[in-house]
């Protein structure tokens, strides 16, 4: 599922609260979209057990902390809502519900009421399970001929001026995942629905809104973002030659397809001679629009550049948020899925499954690393940074983040912040100093929501199965949306790898992550997943040479009787006071979690909130655990080698002794014969 926030002002006007420090992201945005499960504490699976928070953090002034608001006066806000869309349960992958949750604090840190159904669909009879209701929802929409987003996971959502915008995600059908066939954006006026629901007093007790939520499916134009007209320095650099830019020495190796690399470059401006400097305005593939800062690809006739650029957009598990000062939706990375015939089957067979139940198509999962902006007013996608990025978009050492999926990302001010996720293990470059090469496209071996075979979570496989094909990432990067340059924050100690976690950001540039998971290996070499329930915080560096550390939040004493269950693929948002709300997700299944909403005042919270403190985060222990395992494996290997060596030596000595004895016997027998 995906979530965003919206505020309701006292005069009744809807305004978005999804950008800047108020924006939340959540790994793949997958999770429980219906609720109603039995709760289960899973702390025994976490190597680090629950949650820490700080008293030395105070909310910045409201104008800096809330750049997406039209007014800094938070007293004018009557209510603030978390908007949740889509997702899955253990049985239902078909429905795309829209729920609203009013962000109001409970004294014990958990929330259990305040849900409003914005879909306006009769979901079923009394007593129906959420999954059965989801099925009926699909049938009802088909009967009504209503255009509605297909059920999906890993999508991105933002509310702007009361309108919910939904992009991307992966649908699941016939035991395989698919992305949409175009860069579509779905829009729905949830602000009006909230007003209707408030006036009618209709809550999540079975009552519904009076009519269906109306969706608009938009097929945006696609172009290349070149900044605003007043940003001359950036534009001049974007249109200059890049002979003076830092180009890593490994760059020349990126075009060697014999290594299996797919540099997945989606920049149609790349020159034929291999120079990836930004194209100038005379590029034939583009025509100038009324906005001189943007080159728009012509829709007719369709060019190869247009086709490639459009085809690179559909994806799942992308992350980002609302950019208030640029008034755009920002997205980064994600997962592209494609299907190719399984060579084990005849090429003329096209069904997804054979009679024996074996998939005839192999799902190819490709992590992505590009940055896009969506212009709300113009309904237009704009490429801000291709993958690999231009040399001038990289840091001073020519480095940039690896393409990834299952990461967390949020927009804070004019910067996109990304943390963690997973990268393809088939990249040839060292992830600690990644300076070239593209992500390889390889078949997935049933990794969680990417699987095309098996059976976990209704989708197949389990998230432990493919740990050998993905690298867990620990890095934090910022992408300046004005200068369009990457810069690494850190490295931050200790190195904490997270995937399918959530990430929210505050006005001073701090970011906080919750939950997620990573994999390790058992003594027997089998993969095992560790699921977290901690809140870790990263502040921006105070000086260029500052040593950065992760800080771990600690629950206030008033919450000591409550423990948030470990989870991944959940959703999280931040309200205007700096309180973080977490809902949904799964442990190994969705049903292992309850439908409570959990709240922690990470960045201060409203006046009178329980005090939350932070302490330096300890290592997860998994690196030491894996190092001990490697040492144990080495010891076992040495012992086995010594055993084999001893056995061989013993055998050799025994054979030599046997030979010597046999020689003596022969010699003794011969002497007796001579004596006779």
From TrEMBL:
Residues 1-71, 220-285, 430-466 are annotated as: Disordered. The chain crosses the membrane at residues 631-653. Residues 14-32, 54-68, 444-453 have a biased composition (Low complexity). The keyword Protein biosynthesis does not apply. Keywords: Membrane, Transmembrane, Transmembrane helix. Residues 242-255 have a biased composition (Acidic residues). This is Uncharacterized protein. The keyword Membrane applies.
């Amino acid at each position: 599922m995906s979530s965003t926030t919206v505020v309701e002002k006292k005069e009744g006007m809807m305004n978005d609260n999804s950008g800047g420090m108020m924006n939340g992201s959540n790994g793949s945005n997958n999770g429980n979209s219906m609720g109603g499960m039995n709760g289960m504490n899973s702390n025994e699976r976490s190597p680090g057990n629950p949650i820490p928070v700080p008293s030395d953090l105070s909310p910045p002034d409201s104008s800096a902390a809330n750049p997406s608001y039209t007014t800094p006066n938070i007293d004018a806000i009557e209510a603030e809502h978390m908007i949740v869309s889509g997702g899955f349960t253990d049985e239902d992958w078909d429905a795309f519900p829209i729920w609203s949750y009013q962000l109001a604090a409970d004294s014990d840190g958990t929330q259990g009421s305040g849900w409003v159904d914005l879909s306006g669909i009769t979901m079923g009879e009394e007593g129906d399970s959420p999954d059965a209701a989801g099925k009926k929802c699909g049938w009802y929409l088909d009967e009504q001929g209503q255009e509605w987003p297909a059920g999906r996971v890993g999508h991105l959502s933002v509310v702007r001026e009361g309108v919910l915008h939904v992009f991307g995600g992966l649908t699941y059908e016939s035991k395989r995942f698919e992305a949409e066939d175009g860069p579509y954006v779905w829009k729905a006026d949830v602000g009006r629905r909230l007003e209707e629901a408030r006036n009618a007093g209709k809550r999540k007790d079975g009552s519904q809104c009076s009519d269906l939520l109306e969706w608009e499916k938009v097929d945006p134009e696609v172009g290349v973002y070149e900044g605003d007209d007043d940003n001359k320095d950036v534009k001049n650099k974007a249109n200059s030659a890049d002979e003076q830019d830092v180009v890593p020495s490994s760059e020349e190796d990126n075009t060697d397809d014999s290594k299996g690399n797919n540099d997945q470059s989606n920049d149609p401006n790349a020159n034929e001679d291999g120079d990836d400097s930004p194209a100038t305005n005379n590029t034939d593939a583009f025509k100038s629009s009324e906005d001189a800062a943007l080159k728009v690809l012509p829709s007719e006739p369709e060019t190869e550049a247009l086709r490639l650029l459009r085809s690179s957009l559909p994806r799942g598990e992308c992350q980002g948020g609302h950019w208030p000062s640029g008034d755009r939706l920002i997205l980064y990375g994600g997962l592209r899925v494609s299907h190719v015939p399984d060579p084990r089957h005849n090429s003329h067979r096209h069904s997804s499954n054979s009679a024996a139940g074996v998939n005839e198509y192999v799902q190819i999962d490709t992590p992505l690393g590009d940055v896009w902006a969506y212009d709300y007013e113009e309904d237009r996608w704009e490429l801000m940074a291709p993958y690999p990025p231009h040399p001038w978009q990289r840091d001073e050492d020519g480095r940039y983040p690896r393409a990834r999926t299952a990461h967390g990302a949020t927009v804070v001010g004019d910067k996109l912040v990304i943390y963690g996720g997973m990268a393809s293990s088939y990249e040839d470059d060292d992830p600690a100093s990644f300076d070239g090469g593209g992500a390889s496209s390889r078949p997935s071996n049933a990794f969680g929501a990417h699987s095309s075979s098996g059976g976990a979570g209704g989708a197949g496989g389990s998230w432990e199965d493919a740990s050998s094909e993905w690298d867990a990432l620990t890095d934090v990067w910022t992408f300046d949306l004005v200068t369009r340059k990457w810069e690494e924050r850190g490295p931050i100690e200790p190195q904490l790898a997270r995937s399918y976690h959530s990430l929210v950001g505050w006005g001073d540039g701090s970011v906080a992550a919750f939950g997620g998971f990573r994999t390790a290996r058992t003594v027997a070499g089998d993969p095992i997943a560790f699921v977290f329930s901690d809140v870790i915080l990263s502040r921006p560096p105070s000086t260029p040479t500052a040593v950065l550390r992760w800080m771990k939040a600690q629950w206030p004493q008033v919450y000591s009787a409550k423990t948030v269950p470990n989870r991944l693929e959940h959703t999280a948002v931040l309200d205007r006071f700096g309180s973080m709300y977490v809902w949904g997700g799964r442990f190994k299944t969705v049903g292992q979690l309850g439908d409570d909403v959990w709240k922690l005042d990470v960045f201060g919270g409203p006046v009178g909130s329980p005090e939350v403190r932070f302490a330096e985060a300890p290592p997860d222990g998994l690196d030491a655990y894996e190092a001990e395992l490697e040492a144990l494996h080495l010891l076992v290997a040495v012992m086995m080698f010594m055993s084999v060596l001893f056995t061989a030596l013993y055998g050799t000595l025994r054979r030599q002794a046997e030979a010597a004895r046999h020689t003596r016997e022969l010699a003794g027998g011969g002497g007796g014969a001579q004596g006779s």
